[in-house]
Amino acid sequence: MMKKENQAPTMKDVAREAGVALGTVSKVVNDLPVGESYRIRVEEAIRKLNYQVNTYAQSLKADKTYTVALLLPNTQNPYFASLAHHINMTLSRQKYRMLLCCTDFDPASEQEYINMAQRGKVDGIIGLTYNPNLVIEEGTPFVAIDRSMSPRFPCVASDNFAGGQLAAEKLADLGCKNVAFLRIGSSLNSETNKRRSGFENGCLSRGLSCEMKILNDGEPFSLFKEFLREHIRGGKFTFDGIFCVTDRLAWLIIKALGKLGIHVPEDVQVIGFDGIRYFGDEDYICSTIVQPVQEIAEMCVELLTRESLSTKPPLVCLPVTYACGGTTREHTASLKEDAETMEIP
Amino acid sequence: MMKKENQAPTMKDVAREAGVALGTVSKVVNDLPVGESYRIRVEEAIRKLNYQVNTYAQSLKADKTYTVALLLPNTQNPYFASLAHHINMTLSRQKYRMLLCCTDFDPASEQEYINMAQRGKVDGIIGLTYNPNLVIEEGTPFVAIDRSMSPRFPCVASDNFAGGQLAAEKLADLGCKNVAFLRIGSSLNSETNKRRSGFENGCLSRGLSCEMKILNDGEPFSLFKEFLREHIRGGKFTFDGIFCVTDRLAWLIIKALGKLGIHVPEDVQVIGFDGIRYFGDEDYICSTIVQPVQEIAEMCVELLTRESLSTKPPLVCLPVTYACGGTTREHTASLKEDAETMEIP
């Protein structure tokens, strides 16, 4: 067969020019370990022939695309935005590219992306979805974030139970006696349920009296306002601490409290959950249980790309931390502790 | 040639099964217009043969990958996060996938992504970069955001000059007389320079006295604090309005003012630039000139994907709007206007 003069050089041409096997060229091109002298010969041949690595053709040959799809509702929510960033950076360090697939909570769009990912033979999918009916083919490399899709696929999340417990312990340490737990969200969200259970547990062990107010998806926020108003008795707010299931809810509640003339943290201390910061990297928006976003990202990539793991854990919970964000009275509490110490010489 | 029994069906097999030309199958698979009866026959054949569309093989054939690379410093900054979201959604509506390429401001990483994109034959690149030395091959479909890379590539930005002017006009409308412009950032950032020029222009036309304080990259934030402190005379802050070049700077300045006992908006009104909201979609963090992120996203995709455009505009500026975010005195101003109107019957 005659080779046209103007035809682009192929990987085979490079192998012939370098006098090495085709697999050696593939290894060099894919940044896989290969003897240094071979690497030099292949790189010289690539330069000489002006061979352009075609990543997609490469994918077909090696049956690997070095591409991972990340399924997220959006990147406007700061928690999702931070996940996207850390997963992108982690994949990039391992020479993987990342297809961002924002779904805007649309189940059809989520399924379409899953199908696309399966068709397009990406090496795997990392997904955060609220869709329990998503169909993911058996054997698809899939890692879920925050919400387990099925025991067949590993899920990476914060230790939500410990986070709830930590919130209760912090409020107790900060002098609270009567606390509330506020939550909005669907019952499907099992990881979020753990925040409540952990908080209840912490309240019990620390002797805090705790009241729950849980709204289902679709119920109006005004029900929370009513709940708060009902707990003003004789001009005084009966709660001295509130744990909200997310920072966003904490922020909304603090705004509502302000309108009722209740001051945070003077009258009531508020802790949220997520660890959202102003502009992504400035102060925390409120006192909060911080999700370890970078560790979650790294664990997702690890579980997806390590083929050597014969059994993958169905659920990995990563440790959370507490951060003061100005809606709790750390300073006052420590002053009080000092004072108490001085009273008991 | 014998066809192995267990070999995956190809596009050719589908064409043979459906009794149509290969090009017709390609059109159906790529969602391009094709007669309805042909579409039905092809889809039936795809189902019958259990043909899996291989998007990458497809890309090679059609010389189109239906993939666009988005180059951003990160997705943690809410403005970048919002850009990523809207560009992703816009591309997805047009059946394009998006490779997210976070560079963390690293020039080497930016160049690597550009090279990767050229090698991997994505259909184009949309990039926001602060790197003036980036090498982009002539003819690469590239659209810049916010900062022009070269007249060879179109750039999409907010109308930054009009935004600066609008900020001055708003402060004038809100009763300010002595205002300041604060900025931090490199001189390379020509689009940001326009915010200053527009503001100066607005101050001139509205008779506002204006003082500038501009820090270069690397200069410490404490210089701003000093500047603010120097302008407290006889216990009174001499500025009644401040325009900050970004919402982030506005937020930092408001925090610094608070520590000096200067209240916003009572003592001084502050306007930022960007339109950043709490949690991406709640209240604005401060009064602000809002960038039209969705329109910027749509224009980038339009300029990248419309091959029919024979000449692409080097710079497209999209209109900004003003939003009150609680750091200006809209309510007081309108009351005052009412009062004035009543005084002159």
What keyword list fits this structure?
homodimer; 345 residues; alpha/beta; elongated; disordered N terminus; disordered C terminus
Overview of the structural elements:
- The structure is a homodimer of 345-residue chains.
- Chain A is of the alpha/beta class and 345 residues long.
- Chain A is built from twelve helices and 14 strands.
- In chain A, the strands form three sheets. In chain A, strands 2-1-3-4-5-13 form a six-stranded parallel sheet, sandwiched between helices.
- In chain A, strand 10, helix 10 and strand 11 form a beta-alpha-beta unit.
- In chain A, helix 1 crosses helix 2, helix 1 crosses helix 3 and helix 5 packs across helix 11.
- Chains A and B meet through helix 4, helix 5, strand 2, helix 6 and helix 10 of A and helix 4, helix 5, strand 2, helix 6 and helix 10 of B.
* Biggest interface: A-B, 47 and 46 residues
Radius of gyration of chain A: 27 Å
What oligomeric state best describes the polypeptide chains here?
A: homodimer
Largest sheet of chain A: 6 strands, parallel
How far apart are the first and last residues' alpha carbons of chain A, in Å?
98 Å
The largest beta-sheet of chain A arranges its strands as 2-1-3-4-5-13
Mean pLDDT of chain A: 86
Q: Number of helix segments of chain A?
A: 12
